[in-house]
Amino acid sequence: MTIYDISEKAGVSIATVSRVLNGSSNVSEKTKKKVLDVIDKYEYTPNAFARGLGLNTMKTIGIMCADSSDLYLAKAIYYIEQKLRTNGYDSILCCTGYNLKNKISSMNLLISKKVDSIILVGSHFICESEADNKYIADAAAQVPVMLLNAALEAPNVYCVVSDDYTSMYEATLQMIQSGITDIVYFYNSASYSGKKKLAGYRAAMEEHGLFKGEESMQFYQGSHEDIPAMTNYLRQLCQKGVVFRGIIAADDTLALAAVKYARESRLQIPKELAVIGYNNSMLAHCCDPELTSIDNKLETLCQHLISTLLGVLGGSEMPKKTVFSGELIKRGTTL
Amino acid sequence: MTIYDISEKAGVSIATVSRVLNGSSNVSEKTKKKVLDVIDKYEYTPNAFARGLGLNTMKTIGIMCADSSDLYLAKAIYYIEQKLRTNGYDSILCCTGYNLKNKISSMNLLISKKVDSIILVGSHFICESEADNKYIADAAAQVPVMLLNAALEAPNVYCVVSDDYTSMYEATLQMIQSGITDIVYFYNSASYSGKKKLAGYRAAMEEHGLFKGEESMQFYQGSHEDIPAMTNYLRQLCQKGVVFRGIIAADDTLALAAVKYARESRLQIPKELAVIGYNNSMLAHCCDPELTSIDNKLETLCQHLISTLLGVLGGSEMPKKTVFSGELIKRGTTL
């Protein structure tokens, strides 16, 4: 639905619609009512139209991410910035950290800077409790909010996600089918996406009667880039008597630590220890053998998020949620 | 120098100074002149004071970086954001890419958003030609500009840098002293900091009569994270007949590619090929053996940059340039 449709349905010229949205006094009350009734009926806010007409816009998009030093988030920001620039939009980024209070204050900051939309990068912005997600719905009452790899049902919120559940389910299945049954899941985030991944692993293990409960799911709480600490965690796990011949990691960094652990313990990869990572990042090429990893099509996701956003800003009807599939990229750490 | 000093030197109360800076009409012309004379004498602009008093400030700092997907820059942004938040400042980031036109437009965007200062992260913002650096001086005429690991002499511009020249000089010296004489320098950036590093390597080689000209300095032009392409570059270098027993890389990613090349070519590290990286990033722990790398004290630099900025915004006299030393962290890739 565009400005043209409004004009047609209200039976007035495009210039008249524009004058109404502009708040011009050169329009009769009767005509104004006609236009606003159509807008009301189709549940579009005049703001969205004004933006579509290039009125009241700074051509600036706000981006929020929890932590720009996370490889995956940094890459996403890079793609989004590039694609916005190509389309004539500037962007301003707030790194919020993981604390809800800071997320809310960054959101308010961006809105005060009159951005045309806010993009939330990564799944750290969705909280367990619905009440804690109110700040997103509140922001969406003012500008469209786009979620990259997270989902929230609310008016004016649009989501583009990778099907992390299925990707992890299928990767686990492949490892089981290669003959490995003692598989530990190694993760460090319980975000929206983190939970989907864990559920995919668990479903595949349970279906084959291989799930061993708590000891199968190892949660590492330290810094997301401290590889020596992660390696140490796995060494201790082995010392505690947990048996594992495969490790499926929620992130390439964790997977790299597993490869390092295998080397130190003189375990042959993939024969004695198989490893699968997630994100298919540059880290996959850093170890020897190179890492099998799940590519969750980040660039495609970002590309689609921007097209959706441009559609919304242009006043078109756009899908509220789009889901893409990931792909397992096989390299040397799996059989 | 603070608001208290002005009050003392002008012989009026702090509240009066505040009223003058506020433009309040409740001050006699005579008193107003006294205050402004002191400010004039000490060459402070009322703006800087107003900011120190919390007037006219959004408590928001603009950050610019060329590419947030670069590990080093991403880490710097992370530290800077954290330290600003701790001090009650919000921050907004623009990723500009490497093109001058986009750098200028991002700078203008930030100034239009009424930021209190602009921080330029990394040395990609300083151009060869002085005319191309005018946009930085222009911005500094409006708000203080802080440079992280770059230098420019201009009013209201403050620089915090790591002594990349000396770090690289000493690392090269250490490799020479360990008995290796065929050392290739492997780099991918000719930025301000990139040139300093190259010069440090070259000086150490020349002093020992080991510099072989062009073939010693290998410039890789591809993607900054495409490790397989970097490895391939080194393979071709060897095929061309260039002899090297040591590689000093301007970045850990390039060094990692050197380690990978050695593995593929079945060269023993460090006996047959020694490698030194730069930045002491998480990548240093990714390879086997772990990477010897130069720590350029990024967190210290960021910490100091923020204290300098807070001093400037508070109206204190702060150093225009501060230089920190780096440190070689020895691990398994050197003798």
User: How many strands of chain A?
Assistant: 12
Indicate the radius of gyration of chain A in whole angstroms: 24 Å
Q: Return the average pLDDT of chain A rounded to an integer.
A: 90
- Shape annotation of chain A: elongated
Oligomer: homodimer
Helicity of chain A, in percent? 40-55%
Separation of termini of chain A? 52 Å
Give the spatial strand order of the biggest sheet of chain A. Answer: 2-1-3-4-5-11
- The SSE string of chain A, one letter per element, is HHHHEHEHEHEEHEHEHEHEEHEE
Q: In percent, how much strand structure appears in the residues of chain A?
A: 15-25%
Main sheet overview of chain A: 6 strands, parallel
Brief overview, please?
Two copies of one chain form a homodimer. With 335 residues, chain A is of the alpha/beta class.
How would you sum up this structure, described in words?
Chain A is α/β, with parallel strands linked by helices and 335 residues long. Chain A has helices at residues 3-10, 14-22, 29-41, 46-52, 71-86, 100-112, 134-140, 164-177, 192-207, 227-239, 252-264, 298-313; strands at 60-65, 90-95, 117-121, 145-148, 157-162, 183-187, 217-219, 246-249, 274-278, 292-295, 321-324, 327-329. In chain A, the strands form 2 sheets. Chain A has a 6-stranded parallel beta sheet, with helices on both faces. Chain A has a 6-stranded mixed beta sheet with strand order 7-6-8-9-10-12, with helices on both faces. In chain A, helix 7 (134-140) links the parallel strand 3 (117-121) and strand 4. The model of chain A is unreliable at 46-55 (pLDDT under 50). Chain A binds chain B through residues 60, 67-69, 71, 74-75, 77-78, 81-82, 85, 90-95, 97, 102, 105-106, 109, 113, 225-228, 253, 256, 260, 263, 282-283, 285-288, and chain B through 60, 67-69, 71, 74-75, 77-78, 81-82, 85, 90-95, 97, 102, 105-106, 109-110, 113, 225-228, 253, 256, 260, 263, 282-283, 285-288.
